[in-house]
Design a protein that fits this description.
The structure holds 2 protein chains of 2 kinds. Chain A is mainly alpha-helical. Chain A is 74% helix and 3% strand. Chain A is built from 22 helices and 2 strands. Chain A has helices spanning 7-24, 32-55, 89-105, 114-133, 137-146, 148-158, 163-191, 198-203, 208-225, 234-241, 244-269, 271-276, 278-297, 302-321, 326-357, 368-371, 373-386, 393-408, 410-435, 442-445, 452-470, 473-491, and strands at 65-73, 78-84. In chain A, strand 1 and strand 2 form a beta hairpin. In chain B, 83% of the residues lie in helices and 0% in strands. Chain B contains 7 helices and no strands. Classes of the chains: A mainly alpha, B mainly alpha. Chain A binds chain B through residues 169, 173, 230, 233, 291, 294-299, 422, 425, and chain B through 74, 77-78, 80-82, 84-85, 88-89, 93-94, 97-98.
């Protein structure tokens, strides 16, 4: 039943094994350079083994590809079942790539417990790939829960002064959400005649009451992760306290798991309930876009500001999903990838400043462009992309979702479009106060411009932000067949006759 | 469209036509006037400013639109954002719902822990009360 180790298994287990090897190499910081090198090799290998997913991907079919199947717990019919389609594949690449960035970003910044830090990120990377590749409900649940642990440790050990509060809040919030999902998974096991195969669940007929209850159960798990208003308050705390690398992974990948859950579980398994609750979902998404956009405006802490802007951007994603048209869903997916690049880059930018001044407060800066011109140029590009400027990746997804919304309701589109104003307001106002003006603080005058490591990181992300903004076609092509298939599936009622 | 096509006699003609239109000459006059006022007779602008007074102020402040935007839209958005953040996120969601539920459980536990005295006779007495309540419940239902 098991035919060798597949590519997806490699993307999961190469980073995890690399992480465990680093842990085994000893937690002694005197060997930190060797451990850093080992982490870099592990992250590079993890990214290299994921590349065939892109090059060997068949864009013409919505079927699962690179599938792997092995018996795991035969007694309960639990399988090690992996596979990706056009919706999940890009996220494995994004995750493997982000891991590489994070290892480089933590190179000189993390000085204590280097081995554990690097190992936590590599193991986390493997677990996240598992979330996107799993096609067995139990396997998904295990990866989904397990990925909390490395991030909990990352925030709790290498975080800021209030890190323990933030780590526990993050853990309890997300754990509470996912417990209901376990109940839903067990229910689906019984109604599907004893299967944990997610694709089988897609075809199981379900009554309306069952669908609504399943919707609620899955919704809590995924809405907390996205996070949707009003279960979002763990994110600003987690972002503020997390080290730069933790913030990057959190924003770039972990939030996407929640949105991915909507497409893999909620829409296809309970399509009738999804249609029934569209109004509620759109309302929550639009509240996130407008309310959170305004809240972002008044933040004095840069990390908190970007955290709130992430929630507003993810509101756009969930809005797109519940439009039930190709523009909305593909726009949402592009927005997810773009937000991975842009928010990751913004957190790296804040990290660059924090490493020099040890403050995240906007008021502690001003005039940064005079001492760090190269940095200021990159920071501007990413701030503009965050505001959704055309020719950056931030524009493509937002534009598609707004177009998709117009097809359904003019007013939804009009409210969603407010994000272009609030987004520009909070991104550019922060940029203005931090970067422009006179140098008012002595510590700002002493800031040195980017070193080559930081320059490399930001340059790669800048190229991706511009590339995706100018020519998004390769990405939409990959998603097309799967999104069309999903929409055709969701259009059919599953109510038992 | 046909009406427009009849007016169009080629790109060169269109370009040349621009020289006989009023906007072109007004623009040119503006350039000449600015040159005269700020390069040749540099004392004149100040005199004109004093003469026209209010008109100058209105133009200088762009009919007050910038101030209006700053005071209404920018300050309004900041005020609204601050209120939503402090009342919505900090007070209601985090304060009441998230940390509130944690505090509530803490309070219940603080009271409930007094029941855990560690004395066997307290537990035995609780069991006796429990059995009595159970019997009462059974008999009440048996009668109905």
């Amino acid at each position: 039943m098991f035919e060798g180790i597949g590519i997806l298994s490699l993307t999961i287990w190469v980073p995890i094994v690399a992480g465990l090897l680093i842990l085994l190499s000893g937690g002694n910081d005197r060997q930190a350079d060797g451990q850093r090198a080992l982490a870099l090799i592990g992250a590079m290998l993890g990214f290299l083994v994921a590349i065939p997913l892109w090059t060997g991907f068949d864009k013409s079919t919505p079927e699962m590809q690179f599938t792997e199947l092995a018996n795991w717990i035969p007694l309960l019919n639990i399988h090690y079942r992996l596979g990706v389609d056009g919706i999940s594949m890009p996220f494995i690449l994004l995750n493997s790539f982000t891991t590489l960035l994070v290892v480089i970003a933590g190179w000189r910044v993390i000085e204590t417990r280097v081995a554990q830090y690097m190992a936590a990120f590599l193991i986390q990377s493997g677990l996240l790939n598992g979330v996107f590749a799993a096609l067995d409900g139990v396997l998904f649940y295990i990866f989904f829960e397990a990925m909390l642990i490395p991030l909990y440790l990352i925030i709790g050990m290498w975080g800021g002064p209030n890190r323990v509060y933030a780590a526990i809040k993050f853990f309890l919030y997300t754990l509470l959400g996912s417990l209901l999902m376990l109940v839903a998974i067990l229910y689906l096991f019984f109604v599907s005649g004893g299967s944990f195969d997610i694709l089988t669940w897609h075809r199981v007929p379900l009554g309306m009451t069952a669908q609504l209850l399943l919707f609620v159960a899955f919704f809590f798990a995924f809405a907390v992760k996205v996070p949707m208003w009003p279960v979002h308050t763990w994110l600003p705390d987690a972002h503020v306290e997390a080290p730069t690398g933790g913030s990057v992974v959190l924003a770039a990948i972990t939030l996407k798991v929640g949105a991915y859950g909507f497409l893999r579980f909620i829409l296809p398994i309970v399509p009738d309930a999804s249609h029934e609750l569209t109004g509620l979902m759109v309302a929550l998404s639009l509240i996130a876009v407008v309310y959170i956009g305004l809240v972002a405006l008044v933040q004095a802490d840069m990390k908190k500001l970007i955290a709130y802007s992430s929630i507003a951007h993810m509101g756009f994603v969930t809005l797109g999903f519940f439009l039930f048209n190709p523009l909305g869903i593909e726009g949402g997916l592009i927005q997810m990838i773009s937000h991975g690049f842009v928010s990751g880059a913004l957190f790296l930018c804040i990290g660059v400043m924090y490493d020099r001044v040890h403050s995240r407060q906007i008021a502690d800066y001003g005039g940064v462009a005079r001492v760090m011109p190269r940095f200021a140029a990159f920071f501007m590009l990413f701030a503009m992309a965050n505001a959704g400027l055309p020719a950056t990746s931030g524009f493509v997804g937002e534009f598609m979702v707004i177009l998709g919304a117009v097809q359904v309701s003019f007013w939804w589109a009009a409210i969603a479009a407010l994000t272009l104003i609030t987004g520009a307001a909070y991104s550019l106002w922060m940029y203005k106060r931090v970067v422009f003006g006179e140098v008012r603080h002595a510590h700002v005058a002493e800031m040195r411009d980017l070193d080559s490591r930081e320059f490399l990181l930001l340059a790669i992300l800048a190229a991706l932000v511009l590339g995706l903004g100018i020519y998004p076609l390769p990405l939409t092509e990959v998603m097309h067949a799967s999104v069309d298939h999903l929409l055709a599936h969701v259009a059919h009622s599953k109510l038992a006759p | 469209m046909t009406a427009y096509a009849n007016e169009f006699h080629g790109a060169a003609a269109l370009g040349l036509h621009a020289f006989v239109t009023l906007p072109f000459w007004l623009t040119l006059a503006g350039v000449a006037l600015a040159g005269y006022l700020y390069l040749v007779r540099r004392d004149l602008p100040e005199k004109i400013r004093r003469k026209v007074g209010v008109l100058y102020t209105v133009l200088e402040r762009k009919y007050g639109f910038d101030d209006f935007n700053d005071r209404v839209f920018a300050a309004g958005a900041r005020m609204l954002g601050g209120k939503l953040w402090r009342w919505g996120d900090v007070a209601l969601i985090d304060g009441a719902a998230v940390n509130g539920s944690a505090r509530l459980i803490g309070r219940i536990a603080r009271v409930a822990r007094h029941l855990q005295t560690g004395h066997v006779y307290h537990y035995a007495f609780a069991m006796v009360i429990g059995v009595a309540l159970y019997l009462a419940w059974l008999t009440w239902f048996a009668q109905r």
